[in-house]
Automatic annotation (TrEMBL):
Record protein name field: Tc1-like transposase DDE domain-containing protein
GO MF, any single term: nucleic acid binding
Cross-referenced SUPFAM superfamilies: Ribonuclease H-like
Organism: Clostridium beijerinckii (Clostridium MP)
Domain called Tc1-like transposase DDE: residue spans: 4-89
Transmembrane segments: none
InterPro entries cross-referenced by the UniProt entry: RNaseH-like_sf, RNaseH_sf, Tc1-like_DDE_dom
Length: 90
């Protein structure tokens, strides 16, 4: 059986969930997902809460954050605390 990787966000204010399936979860897939999120939310600051997966700290992602530092902020949960990430329960 082949596993499916999901990338998703939960908008805390509206309860809206945006989720995508990927065969592979790497920095490129994560970056493309970020671009879609930025398109979906074209105005205002976006704060995304993440676990500490290696892909979330990739250089490719850091380059995007530097470019969009006034618009996009990542906040990381404590290591080994998936219970704090509300999307994990969906």
């Amino acid at each position: 059986m082949v596993g499916v990787k999901l990338i998703g966000i939960l908008d805390y204010e509206s309860g809206h969930v945006c989720c995508e399936e990927h065969e592979k979860y790497d920095a490129v897939a994560f970056l493309e997902f970020f671009k879609k999120v930025l398109t979906q939310y074209p105005k205002g600051k976006i704060v995304i809460i993440l676990d500490n997966a290696k892909v979330h700290h990739a250089k490719l992602i850091q380059l995007l954050l530097e470019k969009l530092k006034n618009r996009l902020e990542l906040m990381f949960l404590y290591p080994y605390s998936p219970g704090l990430n509300l999307i994990e329960g969906l």
